[in-house]
Every structure is written in structure tokens, then in C-alpha cells.
Amino acid sequence: MGQGEGRAPEGPGAVPTPLARPGGHKEIDQGHTLHPPADRGHADANPHACGPGVRHPCHGHFHHEHHHGAAGQDFSRAFAFGIALNLGFVVLEVASGWWAGSLALLADAAHNLSDVAGLALAWAGAWALRLKPDARHTYGWQRASILAAFANAVLLFAAMGWLAWEAVQRLAQPQAVQGWTVVGVAAAGIVVNSATALLFLRGQHGDLNVRGAFLHMAADALVSLGVVIAGALYLWRGWSWLDPVMSLTVAVVIVLGSWGLLRESTRLLFDGVPERVDPLAVRAYLEQLPGVERVDDLHIWAMGTTQIALSAHLIAPGGPLGDAALHRIAEELQHRFGIQHATLQVMREPITSLHASSLSDFGRR
Hints:
This protein is α+β, with helices and mostly antiparallel strands. It folds into 2 domains: 32-63 and 276-358, Alpha-Beta Plaits, CATH 3.30.70.1350; 71-269, Alpha-lytic protease prodomain-like (Up-down Bundle), CATH 1.20.1510. Helices cover 55% and strands 7% of the residues. The chain has 11 helices and 4 strands, in the order E-H-H-H-H-H-H-H-H-H-E-E-H-E-H. It has a 4-stranded mixed beta sheet with strand order 1-4-3-2. It starts with 31 loop residues before the first strand and ends in a 7-residue tail after the last helix. GO terms for molecular function: zinc ion transmembrane transporter activity. Its main location: membrane. It is a multi-pass membrane protein. The chain crosses the membrane at residues 78-101, 113-132, 144-165, 177-201, 213-235, 241-262. Residues 1-52 are annotated as: Disordered.
């Protein structure tokens, strides 16, 4: 038996050493969770690190992880300010809409109320990103941010569905509205909602959860703009039917614009590859690495709305790739594809089992 075979590794970061596989004598190099170069001391200190001349099955533990906890921290004040501002405005809109008899104004208030709930969900999701992992939740609570984004999309669609239904009902029975009140309150809504949306503008591209909050606020500003236009035309031409028509039009526009949020959050909830990552390009990059013959069991998924993880089997008949090569792979995965957490299992031969051969064979050359 070679050195280290059949013996449990020591140290808190080690992974169990496998016994030789029946019917085979080739060494297996597995279990590399990659660290960037700044953390090489961790890898070098590992008594099971892989490298030239190592004869036992290698189990170097390299951890490459780049945290993006700033979303919850940076936007906490934005969430609090947005919730308070919108709650106050909801009260104003309900009172004014009731007095003015404006469905568009009441609908805007209902949508604003759903946005308050959406902001609260997004805030909770952002806060969950900062919770530390434990024995039962080894990834922490990052998935909560994806769930919050999905809930935001569902709330947005539900609010627009209700708005469209009420607009159709009002079209059948048009009612007079207080034009000046409608215009004044809705104009204030444009200011309130636009200001809140701007708070999340810089974070919407890097965090799906923050994007959900931004879309809610931007949608509110658009609804308020529609109300202003409907109120102004009513004052000018007396077209009472324009109020529900404008509400229906805005609802359709918002649903079309928010479809991407619902689609992407649903994809991530089912461990789909994030939209901004090309899985075929990732496979092609790994397969062209020196010494790598093929890539098996490639998986890419979102740990939360800010972090992407990858795991794969790299079949390298020539043996271990070496620490320096693994660190370079980690850097490239993050730089090219935005993958912050990569776990690579390097083996001399593939695992010939139904489980290994049936998963993630997409794009194999």
C-alpha cells in the first residue's frame, strides 16, 4: 500500500483519503477547492498537498472564494429609506385616490404597497447573505436572496394582474376623477419612486435581489408617470376612459420588463447556470488546460444572488496539475466567468459509473 493510502488524513481542512478502487491501481488526485495566490500558505501547509513526486492519492485543499457580502451591507440604508418613504406615500395615495375617485391612483397605491413588501423581502435576502455557514447550512443562507428576488417578481406580477383586471372593469363603467388631485399626487410619486430606484441603480447589475428592488421602484415611477398623463389629458379633453386605458398599458409594459427577473430567479432556484455564465465556454476553457484530457461532472450554480460556484472532475492522466496551475485556473475562472468558488477534483482516470456518466455531459468534445 502506497504512502497515505487507506489512512484518514489529519487536520481540520483534510478530506477522507479513498482506498484503491477495485480492479484498478491508478492513483487518484481529488478534492481541490481552490484558493487565490494570496492564500497559498494555506495550501503549502497542508500535509496532503499535491505536487511533483507525491506518490499517495493527493488531497490538497485549496479554497478559492471571493465574498460579495457588500450587497446587504451597502444597501441596508437604501432599503430602510425606501420602505419608510413608500409607506408614507402609500397613505397619501390611498387618501387622495379615494377622494378623487381615481382607479389609477388607488392602483398605484396598491402597487406601492406591494413594493414595500418587496423591499422588505429584498432587505431580508440581503441580510441573509451575511449570515455565517453552520453545520446544517454549509453554504450559509445565500439562497434566501434568490428566494427574495423570486418573491419580488411574483408580487410584481400579481400587482399588475390586479391592476389590469380593475382597468378592464373600469373601462366597462367609466367614472369621473378629480384631475388636479390625480396629477399632483402622481407627480409626487414620480419623485419618490425615482429617488428610491436611484438608491439601487448601482447594484442592480451585480445582484439579482437588488435588481428586483430596482425594478419595483422603476415600475412605480412608470405607473405614476402614466397617472400624470391620464390626469392631464382628462383635464384637457375630459376623457374619463383614459385613466383605465393608461393603467392597462402601464401594467403590460411592466410585466414585459419584469419577465427577465422572474425567469432568472426561477432558473437559479432550480440550480440552473446563471445567465451571465456561458457553460460551454467554461467547459472549453477547462478542456484546453495542459494535461487535462477531458472534463466530467461539470456543474455551475448560484450559491446566492452574488456568488457563483463550480465543481468538476478534471481527467489528467499525467497526474497532479500542481498548486500553481490550480491557482491560475481559479483566477481565470473568476476573471473570465465571474465564478468565485471552484472545486476541482483532479483524477488520472474517469469514474466509470452511471452517476458520473449521466450528469453534466453537455458540450463534451
